[in-house]
Design brief:
about 200 residues; alpha+beta; OB fold (Dihydrolipoamide Acetyltransferase, E2P); DNA polymerase, domain 1; 3 domains; 8 helices; 5 strands; globular; hydrolase activity
Length: about 200
């Protein structure tokens, strides 16, 4: 089991990065917002989870052990696979998932592409009492060069499955409503504009 990686970022894409460590490059799937902050040559520390399927071995990476813990719990929900679990973390974050479950907030969960009312209700039922307490990120993970919030959100939406033009239009509309919004608020507003559907 690969539980932690430290290395140099290479070839960051919309939702993945190649992490070079000890002369070996491993492809790691990350949230789109995280991928948008990564630059070639940046030193990166990731908590990881290896998901084994019959036809694939996929490595998922997280800035904090807490995110990985929430990801693991999300995978225990009926009908939630790794891709959907990553989408939940991309939209809500680990604290947002906890808040939605604590408040029994179906609406928050349905802002995630691929989750409808029935799926949200099932998630609330199955996650109650299972989520870990909040954690702390790795030191140094916030030292990435600044990227415009709008660009981060466009990349995040593309990583979640929308076309670039759809993503750019949704972000432009969200920025009209709240010009100074930070990434989480801008992503939420853009998702509302898109209707939360792929």
């Amino acid at each position: 089991m690969i539980a932690y990686l430290s290395g140099t970022a290479r070839s960051a894409a919309a939702d993945s990065v190649i992490l070079v460590s000890g002369g070996v490059g491993r492809l790691v799937t990350v949230t789109p917002a995280h991928a948008a902050r990564l630059r070639d040559g940046m030193e990166v520390d990731l908590h990881t989870e290896l998901v084994v399927r019959e036809d694939s071995l996929t490595l998922y990476g997280f800035e904090a052990a807490d995110e990985r813990s929430v990801f693991r719990v999300l995978l225990t929900v009926s009908g939630v696979g790794p891709k959907l679990a990553m989408a939940v973390l991309a939209v809500l974050g680990s604290d947002g998932v906890r808040a939605a479950v604590a408040a029994e907030d179906q609406a928050a969960l349905t802002t995630v592409p691929g989750i409808g009312k029935k799926g949200a209700a099932r998630m609330l039922l199955e996650l109650t009492g299972k989520l870990p307490a909040g954690g702390v990120g790795l030191p140094g993970t916030d030292a990435a060069p600044a990227v415009a919030p709008g660009d981060q959100v466009v990349d995040a939406l593309i990583g979640l499955g929308w076309k670039q033009m759809q993503a750019e239009n949704a972000v432009a509309q969200a920025r009209e409503a709240t010009p100074d919004a930070a990434v989480p608020a801008l992503l939420r507003d853009a998702l509302r504009t898109l209707g939360g559907r792929l």
